[in-house]
């Protein structure tokens, strides 16, 4: 059986997005534990201004998510047919969108009543669940070889970073 191969642009965008989602999720957990905690707190919260850290990682996620979503709806369109891929992108949109609508001082001032904050918490839970389901579905479909192919540094001829503009150009010339 041939080892699965994922396009290098997909691996870069997916991997970077995954790392930033993890950073947002963990920093959001620290923010929630320190400033909210209605449904429980961590036994410890590392020192630092986690609201600012969470926001900074969130901005990085927004910047990388835009080209990742553009990739998903163009070159990766066939992968969107998998429900878990679509749901994960939708959860990402909810988490980022509601995060951008929040005021960072709400939590510092104990203002937990804002609808947008409640939606952001929901987005935070949805992205966590969506990622778990997404990884589980990937394991079901291709097992560890598929997951390993997403982290592989191996590049095939014609799939180097310099080849990405031509890949996009071929897609556009085909009319999508």
What does this structure look like?
The chain has 176 residues and is mainly alpha-helical. It has six helices and no strands. It starts with 7 loop residues before the first helix and ends with a helix. The mean pLDDT is 93.
- Class of secondary structure makeup: mainly alpha
Assembly type: single chain
- Order of helices and strands, N to C? HHHHHH
Overall radius of gyration: 18 Å
Poorly predicted regions are none
State which percent range the strand residues make up. Answer: under 5%
Assign an overall shape: elongated
Spatial separation of the terminal alpha carbons: 30 Å
How would a textbook summarize the main sheet? none
How many beta-strand segments?
0
Q: In DSSP terms, counting alpha (H) and pi (I) runs of 4 or more, how many helices?
A: 6
Secondary structure layout:
Blueprint: H1 8-35, H2 50-73, H3 83-101, H4 105-108, H5 115-151, H6 164-173
Helix pairs in contact: 1-2, 1-5, 2-3, 3-5
Short description:
This protein is mainly alpha-helical. Helices cover 69% and strands 0% of the residues.
